């Protein structure tokens, strides 16, 4: 059945050409995110020198539409900012560090890793910087995030409760794909990545709750509850922190100061008490159906061992790193180090479990400075949008969604190498590009009988008239 659906999607791409030509780039980019999450390579792919999947074809078509828009003059390149140059630096430096001799022992391709996990997300960022963001685009982004999050959350709950007949696509509950089986791993087949994307929906739904009319608040509250159930169903501690952090961010921004102080104190007290009382249960929690509670406890013990290996590898090549995607080419000798009196050998088969340590080991201080600096600048951009005194809330929506996404990224990235989890960077780069564009150009709103006007401006909050909105 899924094969037939994939064949139908491939055949329909021809008929989508006129639709893509008439659609706006920002909407096509959102479609790429949705298709990539639900119908990515795990759903259908053609293997070859470069693996081809439905979302990657759509990504290429999106750039075809962008090229047509540039050729016809419908697209204007924005003035490049410091954040834009950082993205250029990340793409270029990471590619330089993929170059090396020899074959990676696990058979993976550093170039393919760079293409799918760095270059393609950077392409999403580029598209987000080319377009004009309209009021309806922000609403569509918010509702799309909520809708996708609901699908993933419900699917995760069905996985955990073993209602496999209702799970679509069905490969999600294929027991032969044993890794993370029994947890809410979703179509990405990774509970951490699944929780990350659901957390984007959590942030969007929490914002909707704040701005919804009184009667609609109950609906949004129920949606947030379902989304958090989905985050819990991932049975992944880092995903839990990301989901709760996304809700807490919105509460922090919109609550009175005294509520924030009391809430923070309450979270610290209750959280500390809960952790102390449930420490053993959290550490020994059985999650995967094919792994015991002891195996789950072992996974936590691996992280400090991997951190030691990362430190030793960093000391040998601190500036340029050992090569992007070439960790397994160089890590073996470091697991034999006996100076720490630690069983480093047991961590040999595992990749780094921290995205920042992974970037540091692979690309050195140069890569980490570019990558970390870009993330810090995005956080600053998101916070400025949140604090923007605008008459319309769309700019604040974008800022809060970005910051909620960053919280989920940090929570998961501190315990997983989220760089190699499908779709995580696609969302991160796209939302980052949207935020930078809104900060630079504002959000456009259609005023009846007038031209497009921005509802915010980087230097002033008054509306100013701009040209007629182009089909970008």
UniProtKB/TrEMBL annotation:
<dbReference type="Pfam" id="PF04932">
    <property type="entry name" value="Wzy_C"/>
</dbReference>
<feature type="transmembrane region" description="Helical">
    <location>
        <begin position="258"/>
        <end position="278"/>
    </location>
</feature>
<feature type="transmembrane region" description="Helical">
    <location>
        <begin position="85"/>
        <end position="105"/>
    </location>
</feature>
<dbReference type="GO" id="GO:0016020">
    <property type="term" value="C:membrane"/>
</dbReference>
<feature type="transmembrane region" description="Helical">
    <location>
        <begin position="26"/>
        <end position="46"/>
    </location>
</feature>
<dbReference type="InterPro" id="IPR007016">
    <property type="entry name" value="O-antigen_ligase-rel_domated"/>
</dbReference>
<dbReference type="InterPro" id="IPR051533">
    <property type="entry name" value="WaaL-like"/>
</dbReference>
<keyword id="KW-0812">Transmembrane</keyword>
<keyword id="KW-0472">Membrane</keyword>
<feature type="transmembrane region" description="Helical">
    <location>
        <begin position="355"/>
        <end position="383"/>
    </location>
</feature>
<feature type="transmembrane region" description="Helical">
    <location>
        <begin position="219"/>
        <end position="252"/>
    </location>
</feature>
<keyword id="KW-1133">Transmembrane helix</keyword>
<feature type="domain" description="O-antigen ligase-related">
    <location>
        <begin position="224"/>
        <end position="371"/>
    </location>
</feature>
<feature type="transmembrane region" description="Helical">
    <location>
        <begin position="395"/>
        <end position="411"/>
    </location>
</feature>
<feature type="transmembrane region" description="Helical">
    <location>
        <begin position="193"/>
        <end position="212"/>
    </location>
</feature>
<feature type="transmembrane region" description="Helical">
    <location>
        <begin position="140"/>
        <end position="158"/>
    </location>
</feature>
<feature type="transmembrane region" description="Helical">
    <location>
        <begin position="111"/>
        <end position="128"/>
    </location>
</feature>
<feature type="transmembrane region" description="Helical">
    <location>
        <begin position="418"/>
        <end position="438"/>
    </location>
</feature>
<keyword id="KW-0436">Ligase</keyword>
<protein>
    <submittedName>
        <fullName>O-Antigen ligase</fullName>
    </submittedName>
</protein>
<dbReference type="GO" id="GO:0016874">
    <property type="term" value="F:ligase activity"/>
</dbReference>
